[in-house]
TrEMBL record:
This is TRAP transporter substrate-binding protein. Gene3D superfamilies: Bacterial extracellular solute-binding protein, family 7. NCBIfam families: TRAP_S1. Residues 1-25 form the signal peptide. The keyword Signal applies. GO terms for biological process: transmembrane transport. Belongs to the bacterial solute-binding protein 7 family. It holds the Pfam family DctP. InterPro entries: DctP_fam, TRAP_DctP_sf. It comes from Mailhella massiliensis.
Length: 335
């Protein structure tokens, strides 16, 4: 091939690369999800992919990358922040590393077990005060809030060797925690021994005796068949973990207003579907516990009072670090 022919080929290929996509071209997004196939938040991610494709009439496709194949939620959120990933799923205990006020959501009993529905409604995309606040903070760090997913309130499950029968017998037991400093302090308030372990290593840690228990809800307990290792719950119901899906803000801003609305509408629809599914997920988990004779240990009023007394130093330490506006919003939506 002579030089002129080579130049013609190069110019033709370059032209194809620079030419705008046709109006019917499909845009493919990647969404990183650390959950497994049976998780409630995986359901939310899959619904988002389905709903966005339907709402956009095929213009957008979302490929959900589950089981943590792209890394843990902190790593994938950094990727989304930097623009090498479109969407990332991240739990509140990790998102507070990016958005400090979310430390409030890790504080024990910040949301009452009976007020969870009211709390969730405040994450509505179009009139939810909590959505607007968290989204505003997310945008400051290069992210756009797309969905807020629910997971049932969490308590502590233990292995038979732990010997836990009540709050007093939990003293000194090794409990798995995340990297959240607040979660560690709560374990300390129960006089247990906090042991940081990554989620994907928890099963092995329980099996080998590295830890004797973990913070978990009934639904997740069932979906990971934890009855193989654990046979009792200390029902603290202190932690209402929420999971967020965020998008790279620059990619969101580059879309047309119509396309942005498609994404937000799909996120809103999907999160509401996941909220309903999460309740069913928990009910099935409770049934699983019943079938496997899991012992459910309720706290006495005296034990609850003791825990809250022991938690006061934690509140004294962390509340001054958190935007009081966000604290007030959380309190107000539960009235």
């Amino acid at each position: 091939m002579n030089l002129r022919s080579v130049l013609c080929v190069v110019l033709a290929v370059t032209g194809m690369m620079l030419a705008p996509l046709s109006s019917d071209a499909k845009t493919v997004f990647r969404l990183a999800n650390t959950g497994g196939p049976n998780d409630d938040y995986t359901f939310g991610c899959n619904q988002f992919a389905k709903n966005l494709e339907e709402i956009s009439k095929g213009e957008f496709e979302v490929r959900v990358m589950s089981n943590g194949v792209l890394g843990n939620d902190r790593v994938t959120t950094e990727m989304a922040q930097q623009g090498s990933l479109d969407f990332s799923l991240i739990g509140q205990s990790q998102l507070n590393l990016f958005i400090k006020p979310l430390l409030a959501m890790d504080l024990p009993y910040m949301v009452e077990f009976s007020k969870n529905e009211q709390f969730l409604k405040a994450f509505d995309h179009y009139d939810g005060v909590l959505y607007k606040y968290v989204d505003g903070e997310a945008q400051k760090v290069g992210l756009k809030l797309i969905m807020t997913l629910d997971t049932p309130f969490r308590s502590y499950a233990f292995t038979p060797r732990s010997g836990v029968e009540n709050l007093a017998t939990a003293r000194g037991v090794k409990a798995r925690v995340t990297m959240s400093p607040i979660e560690k302090e709560f374990v300390n308030a129960l006089a247990m021994n906090p042991c940081p372990v990554g989620w994907t290593e928890v099963y092995t840690a329980l099996q080998q005796g590295t830890v004797d228990g973990e913070i978990i809800n009934f639904g997740t307990f069932a979906s990971f068949n934890r009855a193989e290792l654990e046979d009792r719950f200390l029902l603290t119901r202190h932690n209402m973990a929420k999971i967020f899906v965020v998008m790279n803000k620059a990619k969101y801003d580059a879309l047309t207003p119509e396309q942005q609305k498609m994404i937000l509408d799909a996120g809103r629809k999907s999160q509401m579907e996941e909220w309903v599914m999460s309740q069913d997920f928990e009910a099935k988990g409770m049934e699983y516990c019943k079938q496997h004779n899991i012992k459910l240990i309720e706290l006495t009023d005296a034990e609850k009072a003791e825990i809250k007394k022991n938690l006061q130093p934690l509140y004294d330490e962390y509340l001054p670090q958190i935007d009081p506006e966000f604290i007030k919003l959380i309190q107000d939506v539960q009235k």
